[in-house]
Specification:
Flavocytochrome B2, Chain A, domain 1; globular; 4-stranded mixed β-sheet; mainly beta; binds protoporphyrin IX containing FE; two-stranded antiparallel sheet
């Protein structure tokens, strides 16, 4: 069976930081989300946190839970 889930490396994710390209992606628990439409992530920045990386460990700084990811499209898997 072919694996239909798109996979991206950390260096591929790093390009989608809202600076090098318009895309704003961020990884959380191995899943990459597309936050490009979020007003709160404009230019890839969100309250001192930057897109283009795995932010799993940084969620503990946030005043919200991981349910914030529910309304954004999944891009694929971080490998
Ligand atoms: C100092 C740290 C942070 C602050 C003060 C902060 C604050 C907020 C606020 C006020 C909202 C909108 C209200 C809500 O949806 O509950 C929000 C949404 C969001 N936050 Fe954070 N956050 C922080 C860190 C983080 C981190 C580390 C992540 C990723 C792991 C993250 C991901 C998100 C996402 C994906 C949204 C939804 C954006 C939208 O709906 O447009 N936040 N944050």
């Amino acid at each position: 069976m072919p694996d239909l889930v798109q996979k991206y490396t950390r260096s591929q994710l790093a390009l989608r930081n809202g600076q090098d390209r318009d895309d704003i992606w961020c990884a959380f628990k191995g899943i990459i989300y597309d936050l490009s439409t979020s007003r709160l992530w404009r230019n890839g920045k969100h309250y001192e946190h930057w897109a283009g990386q795995d932010l799993t460990d940084e969620l503990t700084d946030a005043p919200h839970s991981d349910s914030v990811f529910n309304r954004f499209p999944v891009i694929g898997e971080l490998v």
